[in-house]
Design a protein that fits this description.
- By secondary structure, the chain is of the alpha/beta class.
- It is 39% helix and 15% strand.
- The protein is built from 7 helices and 6 strands.
- It has helices at residues 15-27, 38-48, 56-66, 104-112, 118-128, 144-155, 174-189; strands at residues 4-9, 31-36, 75-78, 96-102, 132-137, 159-160.
- A 6-stranded parallel beta sheet has the order 3-2-1-4-5-6, sandwiched between helices.
- α1 (15-27) packs across α7 and α4 crosses α6.
- The longest helix is centred in the last third of the chain and has 16 residues, at 174-189.
- The chain is globular.
- It binds flavin mononucleotide.
């Protein structure tokens, strides 16, 4: 197996980003430790019309079937108080962690170093161990409190990657917009993908914006 990544889904709007990221990480052969907050379950019902099982192992099985995962070790789901999970300790943090989508609440808790649940603890471990931690914060507009938390986290080495898709690749579908953001996350993790053509590559669109060019 390749990289080991912790992926946390929180109760912000934007679960399609998180699920597409999960799909891509698994397809790339990564081992994924998945965390899901209680609020993420509520948002899944609201924006995906999906009711996710509360029990971690049942949720793991649902996603293993959906994403065609053969090896149960490749995708594990952990409860929010499972302190014996590997990423709860600096001795076994894996290669990185993504919180996608990330609520303002979880971001604030991480910025404050609270470590009151496994998500917050794993993020705290990533920061203290100098591992890659990527937050995908979803809110609009951002308040001064949100921005201060982002600046604090950025100064601690955390990547703040808001789900702001560009439009220069001429997206046709919502899936295209989702893939734009997921591609940027995978790039940050160093996980190979072919979600979209890279800027300046021969198969990327080139339409001059300069009439005299
Ligand atoms: C449908 C729905 C959408 C929400 N969207 C957001 C959002 O985009 N950003 C945010 O910070 N909170 C959002 N919330 C509120 C959070 O879910 C709430 O603050 C929750 O306590 C966050 O908990 P968590 O960080 O443990 O997931 C939303 C709630 C619901 C029900």
């Amino acid at each position: 197996m390749k990289k080991t990544i912790t992926l946390a889904l929180t109760g912000a709007s934007g679960l399609p980003y998180g699920l597409r990221l999960l799909d891509c990480l698994l397809a790339a052969g990564c081992r994924v430790h998945l965390l899901c907050t209680q609020a993420a379950h509520i948002v899944a019902r609201q924006e995906l019309n999906e009711t996710w099982p509360v029990r971690a192992e049942a949720l793991a099985e649902l996603f293993r079937v959906r994403f065609k995962v053969q090896d149960a070790e490749q995708l594990q789901v952990w409860g929010m108080q499972e302190w014996f999970a590997p990423m709860a300790s600096g001795s076994n943090p894996g290669d990185g962690m993504v919180v996608c989508p990330c609520t303002m609440g979880s971001m604030a808790s991480i910025a404050a170093g609270l470590s009151e649940n496994l998500l917050e603890r794993a993020a705290d471990v990533m920061i203290k161990e100098g591992k890659k931690l990527i937050l995908v914060p979803r809110e609009t507009p951002f308040s001064a409190i949100h921005l201060e938390n982002m600046l604090k986290l950025s100064r601690a080495g955390v990547v703040i990657l808001p789900p702001n898709p560009g439009f220069y690749h001429q997206p046709q579908t919502i899936a295209d917009l989702v893939d734009f953001v997921v591609a940027r996350i995978l790039d940050q993790l160093g996980v190979p993908h072919q979600l979209m053509a890279r800027w300046g590559e021969s198969n990327s669109q080139h339409a001059s914006t300069f009439p005299n060019e």
